[in-house]
Amino acid sequence: MDEIMVTVICLAYNHAKYIRDTLEGFVSQRASFPFEVLVHDDASTDGTADIIRNYQSRYPEIIKPVFQKENQYSQGISISQTFLYPLIRGKYVALCEGDDYWTDPLKLQKQVDALESHPESDICSHRARRLKNGKFDGWIAPRFGSGMVSASKVILGGGGWYCATASFLCRREAYMRWTPVREVVVIDYTLAIQCSLRGGMVYLRDCMSVYRVGTEGSWTVRNDRKARIKSRLKMIEMLDALDKWTAGHYKRVINRRREMFRSNALLLNRDYRSLYSPARLGINIFRLLHSFDKVARRWLSFL
Fold this sequence. Notes:
It contains 13 helices and 10 strands. The protein is an alpha/beta fold. The model has no long low-confidence stretch (mean pLDDT 89). Helix content is 43%, strand content 20%. The protein has helices at 19-27, 48-58, 79-84, 107-117, 151-157, 172-176, 180-184, 188-196, 219-222, 225-245, 251-268, 272-275, 281-300; strands at residues 6-12, 35-41, 63-67, 92-95, 101-102, 123-132, 135-140, 147-149, 169-171, 201-213. α11 packs across α13 (281-300). Strands 1, 2, 3, 4, 5, 6, 7, 8, 9 and 10 form a 10-stranded mixed β-sheet that branches.
């Protein structure tokens, strides 16, 4: 049997409403190489596991489930590192959570070809469509056309609103590398940062996945204002670790991103006096320009 080229990681929990779209996006892939999908179900209670089992029986060479009897996330266990890392066989790792889905059957082929053509890079992403309440809500795209995205721009981008998680394809070594930033927090943002440091991110303008906004049980729905403030402070801690790890090489852009997270924390905390103080005039102007840039990328990237 040929060696696995891509291992897809899919985390699912109570995604019965969405998981069929996700799994169909996997099994519809047309590639010149073998790939596998590790689907982790974290003790769902809504029938998600039954749907996964059905697809496993139909596509046993592709769908490789991991079922939990007790919810691991609620116990603070790192699911991917604990249960899925030991199972990864692919040269590359692709991501797609159980409430998102892929829309292009050539997605994996295009991204593997892109990284094979760019040995200096460890990550490839592409344009994604946002879906809110079943309706189009804009694009997620770091630039207008295909090309390279520098590590500085990935750091400044700030996470899932800059590049969709379901658009990531990474080299296995870069994905599994445990770095100082991921010791602070393990999210798509820190993964994108560490994978872009060596040679930037390869970006494809093709829209090949959908990100569902505000689904039941998602982070944005689950967490209140205090949790969001705590998250922003955690991002600042992560950027401090990044600055130290990279020996100040990205200090200027890290300082900008750090101040944007701090401003957001002040806004969430309703500390308007500090947020709009004269001392923060420069960063507030930069935030305004950055917001205009995000809106432009979301709505004009299809051109």
